[in-house]
Amino acid sequence: MIDKIIDIDKRKKIEKFFSLLKESKHNLISSGTKRNFEVKHFEDIYIPIDHISVGEKNIDVGTGGGIPGVVLSIIFDESEWLLLDSISKKTNELETFIHQLGLSNVSLVNERVERFSENNRNSFDSVFFRAVARTDICLEYACPLVKNGGNIYIYKGPNFISEKKYFENACNLLGIEFIRKIEYTLSDDSSRNLLIFKKVSDSKIRLPRKVGLAKKRPIGEFL
Fold first, then answer.
1. 145-196 pLDDT tens trace
2. Residue 145 phi, psi (nearest 5)
3. Three-state SS for 147?
4. Domains of the chain, with CATH numbers?
């Protein structure tokens, strides 16, 4: 799948990034065979790429091992990318990877999303999540960060449907609209979805809430 990227320089950077991830001593992401690695960590990001519209400033929240943030920053190399994670060993190692890859459009921040949001309100054109939390929780994290009119992208498996009632409630409170669901299948036959949302108005509640409240008292369960 990586060989479908026409730009040779971008292809080589992605291949080098995955090599760095596999060699990491910190197990930043699950590994497995080379084939499984590519399917899980590249195909999942690349297959729905035509449905992604990025702006000048974009953020990957809970970036972990840099997926999707690093991959997207290589593909959309004319945009700025910020990778945010609360675990320092991840951001420290990713900082080294970014330097080795020569990615001048990427920056990293080691901080909780709630604290980061306090000083970065309405700063990003798009916000990305993958394997972070339930959809309504992701929307709460994204709401203070994304500009009005900006997009929120959340990668999910087939079980996201069980979260629908929660994210619909969250959308109503947060001034967010559910735009569409992109369904696709990876080469190992696993089903995936890219959920696309847009911030259309200001939130009805004050955000960000205190650290940890988004998971302890999910907004999607508010009556």
1. 999 999 999 999 998 999 999 999 999 999 999 999 999 999 999 999 999 9
2. -85, -40
3. strand
4. 2-151+171-208 (3.40.50.150)
